Amino acid sequence: MTLAPETTRPATALTLQLLLEEEDWFTVCELSLLTPGRGVAALLPDGRQAALFTDRAGRTYAIDNRDPFTGAAVLSRGLTGTHQGRPFVASPLLKQRFDLESGQCLDDEDVRVATYEVRAA
Amino acid sequence: MTATPGATPTIVLVGHGMVGQRFLEALAERGLTATHRVVVLCEEPRPAYDRVALTSYFSGKTPEDLSLTDMEFIREHGIELYVGDPAEKVDREAREVTARSGLVVGYDVLVLATGSYPFVPPVPGKDAEGCFVYRTIEDLLAIEEYARSRATTGAVVGGGLLGLEAAGALKGLGLTSHIVEFAPRLMPVQVDEGGGAALLRTIEDMGLAVHTGVGTQEIVVGEDGAVTGMKLSDGSELAADLVVFSAGVRPRDQLARDCGLTVGERGGITVDEQCRTVADPHVFAIGECALAADGRVYGLVAPGYEQAETAAATIAEDEKSFTGADLSTKLKLLGVDVASFGDAHGTTEDCLDVVYSDSRAGLYKKLVIGRDGTLLGGILVGDAEAYGTLRAFTGSVPPVSPESLVLPAGAGAPVQLGPSALPDEAVICSCHNVTKGTIRGAVTEHSCTTVPEVKKCTKAGTGCGSCVKVLGQLVTAELEASGVEVDKGLCGCFGRTREELYEIVLALRITSYRTLLDRYGREGARGGDGCEVCKPAVGSIIASLAPTIGAEGYVLDGEQAALQDTNDHFLANLQKNGSYSIVPRIPGGEITPEKLIVIGEVARDFGLYTKITGGQRIDLFGARVEQLPLIWARLVDAGFESGHAYGKSLRTVKSCVGQTWCRYGVQDSVRMAIDLELRYRGLRSPHKLKSAVSGCARECAEAQSKDFGVIATSNGWNLYVGGNGGATPRHADLLAQDLSDAELVRLIDRFLMFYIRTADRLERTSTWLERIPGGLDHVREVVVEDSLGICEELESLMTAHVANYRDEWAETINDPEKLSRFVSFVNAPDTPDPVVGFVPERDQIKPDLPLLTIGTRPLEGSAQR
Ligand code: SRM
Ligand SMILES: Cc1cc2nc3c(=O)[nH]c(=O)nc-3n(C[C@H](O)[C@H](O)[C@H](O)COP(=O)(O)OP(=O)(O)OC[C@H]3O[C@@H](n4cnc5c(N)ncnc54)[C@H](O)[C@@H]3O)c2cc1C
Ligand code: SF4
Ligand code: FES
């Protein structure tokens, strides 16, 4: 399978970190474990779950893993995409889309999921 | 109309055939059902049905499919319909009709729509057992029963339109078939000598024996009173154990004669231009029983419909008249097109013929042109592609030379005369008398944007169907002309259709989604991440072409992994609580006790819920994502492979037990089902594919509800396509009959690859067949007759798929890198997802739903960026 030329894979092992509370960066995993366009789930110290994604440009995103419409912790298993220039993930259960930067549901303005600040270090 | 003061005036309709039903609809449209009592006496045991499509019963249409009567309509309009109760007597003095049951109904208006009866020549032996006519569903049921139980050779008396249909049907029932026609050629009414010759050749090539220029003198009857043959006028004898008389029809005017109404010399109830009988202003006659004001009895449905409209209009005191009609016909018999329109025989003074004929190819086309260049009529045999357009041009001077209209493409200057050149008054649908102007209006004024919408709005295309192709062209042209952007694009990312993307991927061997998006995506979408619609669709196109374009076949390799829907990504079906189900393939539904035990043990050891599915296999529910590889390791070890219950790909090929055990079976349906399932497993397609194989016509495997269904015959296999269960069920259509094993497989290969190539995303074969121009006929031309010359390519694509198939689960469990995705958490791979829980029910488990409700509302506030 030919990958598009601009795909960048990090040379050194960067780790992905989430900001839980002020100054409290939680290390999740190596960045290289993420496939552009797909997500992974992470278990946080307090039992919550986060869904982490990366896109083809190498930007990373993290939102709550729980699908607010069904209650199942599955958002990390959805398909991502770009809608009007903004990144989103579509729930694998009933297909509602969530903006990866704001957590806003694009199909129901009353629904929003939590987002996390994320960095590769 | 005069009525007894105070009482509701009554309209009595005698005969609930095609024209009768249309009359009722016309009454309703004019509001007359609200102001009148309407009583219908129907002789047949069922209300009105589509007699024109009668023969399609033999290709799988049921009597219910043929029905034209919506009982809801009858009820809603308060129509009193007496089924199986014919009118026996009319008393015009008292204005009363008496039905067979003894029912007496008084009328203010009486409408006779009694149709025709088949003419049976008065030859000795004509009433013997095994002699039939071809007019009603009951006739067909009787022919079918007799053919199945005790006949091998059939003969049809009459080589006209109906005779050919009947002969085709007999052949379809597996009989050796003869046609005996008194005239020197087939279809003498519609075609001339040249057309007859082309037709003869094609019909003979299909294995039907044709005897023209001979009459039937006697039906030979055996000792048991059943037909054994017939004596012909040339002294020869023809062996046959089933005879169908199709020697023309005669108006059913007996009821009218008995009550003293005027009838014509050769039959038919004489009416005026308003369809009112000349003898009695209270009585109308419409359809095939009427002798119209122009002195003709019309044996076609379109003029009958116009008469129905005329009678209804007259009753409503509107102005409308019927002065005559066009006798255009188009017939498709076993794939041969025959059409005639306008003055087909060139009876107009001073007219000229333009003829193209190629009897080797079975082609004959003739146009009749007037002195001033007006197109007067024509005959098309072997290729009636241009029928719709030519018929609509009849009566006007076509904008291009007539020669160019009949020459085949490649010979001289082929001209594709588009319907856009037609005037607004041109009748496009002659069954329902719908003009081009009306169709355009449906688009511009009633904002219809698709052919089905226009059909619903105008009725065009809902009769014989011969105008649907032109209809489609008109709708598109009109939409484009009115500036409506017909965006056929796949999604917000791609402005092209799935079919176009398929062609691009195949031709340019593009193996990467991103390359496709960046080069062929919409302007704003290039360089982006696509969306959840196009990613799986493109992933499926690449997967189904993988061996041919040199892409990796495994659906989770490299970039492909990011394109798949979650089910494909985990090779299992996601359930409501985030757990998965597992469906191992059980080809044809056949399974050994050992394998059943393995499934049982695996389910027990992992605590899974088990259920027999509707697809003849077993589903195991409640697996956590990290358990999937462990479960599959056990299953693969025992010889199971992926059942692709998650994929847009082949699901199951169901089977019935068939010849091996069943007393009725005529072929080994289980073996065939297994062969087909193993051949097409893993094939990625626009939507899921299902199949079934039944061992005989009892159809226990429900093959006619499948995308491709196979039913055994004593000579081989019948292939049905385009069936569907689900929310909008559709009966499959017969594509080909009596195929050998090899022919069957080859035809399915072609059919599936053609579907995969041209269907839209998430379009089942049923909707695809309904949508594509030309429908089933077109598909048959492409995959049976190879009209596009692509069959070899379609077959080699399938061969490549079959040769490169690998089980996805076996590959997955043997590759540590691929296994890495099957973890609950990237940072805690073995910790089970705490919201996936189960509670007991009926000795098994079910999802613990209350566990999910905790936190169903979005979390607010915390740690936002
Ligand atoms: C398991 C099963 C029900 C059962 O317990 O029997 C089932 C279960 C589902 N069906 Fe089905 N269908 C099952 C037989 C059928 C049948 C019967 C058959 O195949 O003979 C039909 C009607 C036949 C047909 O498809 O024409 C059927 C028509 C559908 C449809 C409607 C399709 C349509 O064209 O209208 C859907 C929805 C869809 O695919 O878009 C659907 C979708 C589904 C989905 C995938 C819904 C979903 O997205 O979760 C279910 C997934 C189950 C799972 O997670 O494993 N299922 N489904 C059956 C699995 C058969 C198998 O062994 O693979
Ligand atoms: C196999 C076949 C194929 C055909 N193909 C075509 C085609 O391609 N194109 C085309 O234009 N036409 C075709 N036709 C002809 C078309 O079917 C007829 O023109 C059309 O059905 C005429 O409609 P009708 O209502 O006048 O008669 P019918 O549909 O015959 O209806 C008359 C009804 O009246 C009933 N009836 C008779 N007497 C009484 C009574 N005393 N009381 C109560 N009920 C009574 C009859 O039982 C019948 O049900 C075909 C016909 C057949 C048989
Ligand atoms: S379809 Fe025919 S062969 Fe198959 S089980 Fe039913 S009756 Fe028997
Ligand atoms: S011409 Fe028969 S349906 Fe239109």
TrEMBL record, chain A:
Q: What keywords were assigned to this record? A: 2Fe-2S, Iron, Iron-sulfur, Metal-binding, Nitrate assimilation, Oxidoreductase
Q: Which residues cross the membrane?
A: none
Q: Does the keyword Iron apply?
A: yes
**Which organism does this sequence originate in?**
Streptomyces populi
Instruction: Look up the coiled coil feature and give its residue ranges.
Output: none
Q: Which domain of life is it from?
A: Bacteria
Matching NCBIfam families: nirD_assim_sml
Q: Which GO terms describe its molecular function?
A: 2 iron, 2 sulfur cluster binding; metal ion binding; monooxygenase activity; nitrite reductase [NAD(P)H] activity; oxidoreductase activity, acting on paired donors, with incorporation or reduction of molecular oxygen
Domain Rieske positions: 25-121
Write down the InterPro entries for this protein, in alphabetical order. Answer: NirD, Rieske-like_NirD, Rieske_2Fe-2S, Rieske_2Fe-2S_sf
Output this protein's name: Nitrite reductase (NAD(P)H) small subunit
What biological process terms from GO does the record include?
nitrate assimilation
Pfam families from the entry?
Rieske_2
Entry keyword annotation includes rRNA processing? no
Automatic annotation (TrEMBL), chain B:
Q: Where does [4Fe-4S] cluster bind?
A: C656, C662, C696, C700
Q: Cross-referenced Pfam families, in alphabetical order?
A: Fer2_BFD, NIR_SIR, NIR_SIR_ferr, Pyr_redox_2, Rubredoxin_C
Give the enzyme's EC designation.
1.8.7.1
Keyword presence, Lipoprotein: no
Chain positions recorded as siroheme binding sites: C700
Task: Please report the stretch or stretches of sequence annotated as the NADH-rubredoxin oxidoreductase C-terminal domain.
Answer: 328-389
| Keywords noted in UniProt | 2Fe-2S, 4Fe-4S, FAD, Flavoprotein, Heme, Iron, Iron-sulfur, Metal-binding, Nitrate assimilation, Oxidoreductase, Thioether bond
What InterPro entries does the database record attribute to this sequence?
A: BFD-like_2Fe2S-bd_dom (IPR007419), BFD-like_2Fe2S-bd_dom_sf (IPR041854), FAD/NAD-bd_sf (IPR036188), FAD/NAD-binding_dom (IPR023753), FAD/NAD-linked_Rdtase_dimer_sf (IPR016156), NasD-like (IPR052034), NiRdtase/SiRdtase_haem-b_fer (IPR005117), Nit/Sulf_reduc_fer-like_dom_sf (IPR036136)
Q: Could you list the residue ranges that cross the membrane?
A: none
Q: Which residues form the Nitrite/sulphite reductase 4Fe-4S domain?
A: 647-786
Q: Cite a single GO BP annotation.
A: nitrate assimilation
**Reactions catalysed according to its record:** hydrogen sulfide + 6 oxidized [2Fe-2S]-[ferredoxin] + 3 H2O = sulfite + 6 reduced [2Fe-2S]-[ferredoxin] + 7 H(+)
Molecular-function GO term, any one: nitrite reductase activity
Q: Which residues form the BFD-like [2Fe-2S]-binding domain?
A: 427-471
Note describing how the cofactor binds: Binds 1 [4Fe-4S] cluster per subunit. Binds 1 siroheme per subunit.
Q: Which cofactor does it need?
A: [4Fe-4S] cluster; FAD; [2Fe-2S] cluster; siroheme
| Family label | Belongs to the nitrite and sulfite reductase 4Fe-4S domain family.
- NCBIfam families (alphabetical): nitri_red_nirB (TIGR02374), PRK14989.1 (NF011565)
- PANTHER family attached here? NITRITE REDUCTASE (NADH) LARGE SUBUNIT (PTHR43809:SF1)
Role: Catalyzes the reduction of sulfite to sulfide, a step in the biosynthesis of sulfur-containing amino acids and cofactors.
How does the record describe its quaternary structure? Homodimer which associates with NirD.
- What protein name does the entry list? assimilatory sulfite reductase (ferredoxin)
